Amino acid sequence: MDDPCLIVVGAGPKGIALGAKVSALRTCGLHVPRVRIFDDGGVAANWTGKEGEYTNGRQRLASSPLKDVGYPYASQWGDAEKNAQIDGQMFRFSWPAYQISRRTMKSKKKNYYATWVDRGEIAPLLSEWAGYLEWVARQSGCMPDERRVKAVSKVGTRWEVVVVDKFGMEEKIPGDGLVVTGPGGPKALKGYDPENHPPIATDARNFWKHLDDVVDGRSLRFGVLGAGGAAASVAMALLQASESRVSADPKQNPFMVDILTPDGVVYSRGESYDENRHYSDPQEWMKFSAAGRRKFNEHTTAGVFSLEAKREISSAENLYTKYFDVADIKVWGSFGGVSVYSKGDGQEIHYDRIINATGFDGLWWIDGLLDDGLRGMAPFNSVSESEERNGGLVIGDSLELRRFDPPIHLPVLAEERGPGFPSLMCLGLMSDRILKRYAH
């Protein structure tokens, strides 16, 4: 009997981690599903900065690169000897292994790994992290099929995915399971049109494509909406880009960035063992109350800046955080700037440029991928991300949508199973959870 087929939408860290784990498990003699990864942008397209979306590639990774595709290296597929064998295979795709392998990639034989350690294990640029992921994909044999996933439907007890190539040719791919990855588009903001308002008003996705026009030397008042990782990246990029475009004398060019947040404060992310251990091993997490989980996420993930971003931004004398709960905006034409209005009292602040960095839509795949028949089925027809962070979807142990077949795995919405699953904090554990459902 053929091994089941698992279709993965997206060749970012989660998709590549799944492909690498399949390679390691097969090498160790286990029967695991075939994995087919689809991404029309190639490996880590949202991390390179080449397409001008989500990043310019020059921001630094917010987590340690040691939390790579195999982390936390705690396989539970057999006895201790078998688990150690699997972890050893996965370490072939680790960040240290990549750095060591780079000695043979260029004519200049540089010891990249030792240099990285000696420099203090600095977090890599996002473009460098993308290079690591592409290396993993090539080493493990899981390079993606670069066709776009156009639609997903349910046919009997299996999935049917329609993919289309650059010439418009379509093919239907059957699968026994589906994994959806990727951040989705920015959350909607009333009054904002992502097609017609840039560069006056942009969002955390298209801001990077318009960065040169956003920071044009004439625009001096910037409003950044949000207080999470996306807002931190945007704020740092504004400060960096402004250095070469405005006068160093604030009296001549008073370049200013406001971060607008309903809390009035930008909090830094908790970075101690007591917090980090729950990403690596979520057993205790499952005992937390709902209130305890919310408090944990508020302190470590939701609406917080990394310590590095917080340090860099805190040193900027032209950046301020303001209490402002944004309801909507009004763009006043090419040279009129933008008005931002608050909820409740309708208070107004005017800026030359604003950037909506309030976060991304974790439910993008419902309207973006599912066919009409699926969208009309429970639970897809009643979810709302405004109600709960996971949209009210109930996620099971294999990070799948419970009470629905065939399996659809949604790691980006799986924080109730463990705080690290939506992020990059436990990619190896995420892969195990999903693949075990199909192993035999």
Descriptive keywords:
440 residues; alpha/beta; five-stranded parallel sheet; four-stranded parallel sheet; 14 helices; 18% strand
Structural class: alpha/beta
Q: Determine the number of helices (DSSP H or I, runs of at least 4 residues).
A: 14
Give the DSSP E fraction (strand runs of 2 or more residues): 15-25%
Poorly predicted ranges: 385-389
| Helix fraction by DSSP (H/I, runs of at least 4) | 25-40%
Largest sheet geometry = 5 strands, parallel
Let me know the average pLDDT: 90
Provide a short characterization of the protein structure.
This protein has 440 residues and is an alpha/beta fold. The chain is 28% helix and 18% strand.
Task: List the topology elements.
Elements lengths: L4 E5 L3 H15 L6 E5 L6 H4 L31 H12 L3 H7 L10 H7 L7 H15 L7 E8 L2 E7 L5 E6 L1 E4 L20 E3 L7 H4 L6 E5 L3 H14 L13 E6 L5 E2 L4 H8 L9 H11 L3 E2 L1 H8 L4 E5 L2 E6 L6 E5 L5 E4 L1 E4 L7 H5 L3 H4 L32 E2 L17 H9 L5
Parallel strand pairs: 1-2, 1-6, 6-17, 7-16, 8-9, 8-16, 9-12, 10-11
Antiparallel strand pairs: 3-4, 4-5, 13-14, 14-15
Helix pairs in contact: 1-3, 1-6, 1-14, 4-5, 8-11
